[in-house]
Every structure is written in structure tokens, then in C-alpha cells.
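Appendix B. One record, verbatim.
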Amino acid sequence: MDQDIKNSILKTGTTILGIICKDGVVMASDRQVTMGQSIVGGKRFRKTHQINDYLVISYAGGASDAQRLEKLLAAELKLKELRSKSRPSVRQAASLTASISYSNIRQLSAIPSIVGSLIGGVNEDGSTALYTISPDGTISEVDDYDANFGSGMPFVLGLLERQYKKGMSIKEGVELALESLKSSTQRDTGSGYGIDVYTITKDGVKKVVEQEILPHYKDKE
């Protein structure tokens, strides 16, 4: 029974990535969710979201846990801003995410909450930053690129290891993110069906790519 329950849980099983550029941050993800190991549970699940005017989150893990984390983070950040009368920094937002993840995975539960995430944003002084938070709450600042713990991570990191260059532009970062996602969706059974890409610069957050991956059939020549 326990295994049946686990197999029916929607998982964002998944490619997420973040790339540091000279003029900002690029974040991207696919859209597929799976049930168990073999069934596609959804084709339009967006795993990268703009939380507010200055922050973006990408996540991998249980779909319901990820959605709850996003809502809780947005609410807590708003409360923090109202109480302190100042906008939380990207570092503070990432630390809050790490604290929530740490608490969730250590709660006694038949179905533990396991979510890995990337938090990127722009601070009030115009500087940008990207942090990776593992499912156990470990937090690290990213100074080049990261794909967290998604199933597409090995395919993405292999390509980024060879093609990433320090000081690349946002435009180059977007192109590299697209190539990385295309690589993972070709080989990773947990990734596919769509691509979403965001840029984060001193001018704010912008969604720059929103694509569907559709099957096409052709007769054998």
C-alpha cells in the first residue's frame, strides 16, 4: 500500500537550472511531471515562477510540496517586508527557503516533503544573486551554474561544464539554458513537454521564453 501511494504522487522529476551571467541571472526549467517511475502525470506544470517583483524560484521534487513551499515563501517574505519596512535581500529569501525545507524534511510523516530549489533575484542596490537549496535545507550561493537535484541534472551539468564561460552575457545565458534543456529533454525520462526561461537583471525579472515541446510524426522516406 505504501508503495502504491508513493507511485501515485506527482513529482516534478525534472530539469531546473540557473546560470550566472555578467549582467544578471538566467533561470529555466521544463514542464513535465511524473507519477511513480513511468507515467506522465502532467505536461504543463511550470516549475519556475516569479514570486514577487524581485525574486524567482525553480523547484524539483513533489509537486504539491513545491507549490506549498512557493506560497509559504511568498507569504513569509511579504510579512517580513511589512514588519521591517524594508525589502528582504535575495540571501534572506534563500535562507528562509532553506529553513522551511530543513523543517519540512525533518517532520515525522508517512510521505516526507522533499523539494530542492533555486532562488534567484535582484537586490535593492541592483545586484543579482542565485542560491541553491538542497532538500535537506543546505544552502549555497552559486557563482557559475547549478541544476540542483532534478533528474535532468547529469545531462545539464555535463553540457554546462563544457560550454559555460565566465562573464557571458544574459543573451548568451538564455541560449545556453535552452540548449541545456533541450539536451535533458532528449535523454531524461522525467523531463519534457515545455520550456520556461526567466532573466533577472538590475531592471527586474522578465520571462523571455515560453515554449511547448510537441510530438511530430513523419513518414519514413
